[in-house]
Structures are given as structure tokens and as C-alpha cells.
Amino acid sequence: MEKIKLSEGAGGEMMQKMISEIILSNLENKNVNGGIGLDELDDGATIPLGKSEIVVTTDSHTIDPIFFPGGDIGKLAVSGTVNDLAVMGARPLAIASALVISEGFPKKDLKRIIKSMNKTCKEVGISIITGDTKVIEKNKFDDIIITTTGIGIAKNGEIKPDSGLEVGDKIILSGTVGDHGMAIMAHREGFGFETNLKSDVAPVWDVVEAALNVGGVKAMKDPTRGGLANALNEMASKSGVGMLIYENKIPIKEEVVAASEMLGIDPYEVANEGKVIIGVESDLAEDVLEAVKKTKHGKDAEIIGEVTDDKHVILKTSVGGKRILETPVADPVPRVC
């Protein structure tokens, strides 16, 4: 009897295959009013209603550990949901939150998590308006799982699907890659080396709003599970295009490079929780970049490449060579979100 593997929930090819073969193939009603639905596997779904489109997204958070350098599961839950709404081009409005808590979980930790969720909501200006709480017998699962569903709104025709890229568009990355996954792994596994790495977990609505206000945005994605490599390949594949990415333009911290080399992990395949990839019309790319760099979470943004008709995501390496930046089989760091 076939059983689900941990790697089938870690982004990349294995998860996409499992979703397609088991989930999508067994569901029939997958969109509403002709909007973006489950088949598109975008960051959210859309429900067209008159002159507006409601955007809905949902995510479960199982990170281990629940408190980590730079954040906690509460901040992650709100940020991840806000970011999925934002990259669809929707203004975040509200969140529904469901908690599944292990018996014996410390109440002080729960209070700390809820306060963190509240603080992150206040940063974006959204509300948690409904929820559910369950307690499960001790030892049935780890500490706490949080599922958040986000609701956002956009004007009709202003949704930014993954599939919106065209040849000639520029690719903007809002900041350094690999921070979250490498910080979690170093903290969790304790590999015996000192690091000041912190997770980048943050809501990126400020970055997205700045880009949208300039105009010319074609598609957006937050590079979570599977990292930059997975997100770029997904956008390219859905748009029917390729990309040329310049490695020397990708923002990355020296600590991430050092830790990646030591652990034998590709930093481009590691999850991020506070970054966004933006595909922009070439003529407006510099203006969008300038606007993004003025935001709290976009100071390290760079134009990292352009869209081509190659059908592959090609990385021009720092030493001048070229290689295909493949879709990872799975995120090399499990349970990072």
C-alpha cells in the first residue's frame, strides 16, 4: 500500500505530482463564477463579484520549532496568508484562524503566539474575524498547528496570476534569499557553528502595494517551499516562457552562502517567508524597483533577470557559465512553514 511521504508536502515536483494525481483528479467543482480555482494551483482563488474580485487563500502551518530566530508560528501564519493574497494583486482584508493544540501545551506559549498574530495583523491593517480551536490528546502530534484562511479584494481585471509573464518582462526579487530556511535549519539541527541568521518572515503587502501603484506588474509569487528555484520555474511554466537569471544580481547574505556550502544545500531551493518575485513590463521595471526599495521589506530588492522564449529558467552563474535552474524535487529543509 502506497503511503504519503514527508517530501510530498515540501514543495517541488513530488508535491505537485501528488496534488495532481490524488487531489485534483478526485474533485470536480474547483472554481466559482469562472474565477481562478484549484486547477490553476495559484497562490489563491478568485471569486468575480460585479466590479470586484474576492480572493481567498488558505494555509496550514506546522513549522518546527514554533519559536525561531526572527519569528514564531503566529507571525508566520499571518504573514504567509497575507503574502499569498498580496501576490494575487489583492488588498488583504481579513483572516480566519483555526488552532489545533496538543494537550499540555503551555498557556504562556499560546498567549505569546496569539499576541504575535495580533501584532502582525496590526502591521498590515487586517483583522482576525473568526476561528476555531481544538485540543488533541497528548503525544498525538507536536505542539500546535495553525490554519489560516485569508480574504482579500481587487478590482475586476487587476488580479495577477502566476501565468501573466510575457517575453521581455523583467524579474524583480524583493530581497535576500534563503534566510528563513537556513535560519530554521541552523537553529533546529544545531550543526555546531555560530550564525546570526534570522528568518525573513514578514508580511510583504507594503512591497506589493508599492509595485502595483507604479503599474506594469504582470505576475507575482512568494518563493516559499522550494525557494526561488521552484517559484521561478512555476511562473515560467504557467506563462509558457523561459527566464534568464543573473546570479550576481540575486541578493544573498554571506552567512546563507557559508551555511549552504557547509550543509550541501542549494540556497535557491530553500524557503523564504518575507520575499516576493515580481514580473514587470520592461519599461517600468526601474520605476517599480525604485518604489519597492523605499518600502520596509524591499530595501534589498534587485532586478535579477528577464523573461525569454527559451522555455527554461537559465541561471547565468557568477563565473560566467550557464546552467538550467531546475524545479527542486522537494524543499531540502522540511517543516519550515
UniProtKB/TrEMBL annotation:
SUPFAM superfamilies: PurM C-terminal domain-like (SSF56042), PurM N-terminal domain-like (SSF55326). GO terms for biological process: protein maturation. Transmembrane segments: none annotated. Residues 42-154 form the PurM-like N-terminal domain. Residues 166-315 form the PurM-like C-terminal domain. Pfam families: AIRS, AIRS_C. This is Hydrogenase expression/formation protein HypE. It comes from Methanothermus fervidus (strain ATCC 43054 / DSM 2088 / JCM 10308 / V24 S). Belongs to the HypE family.
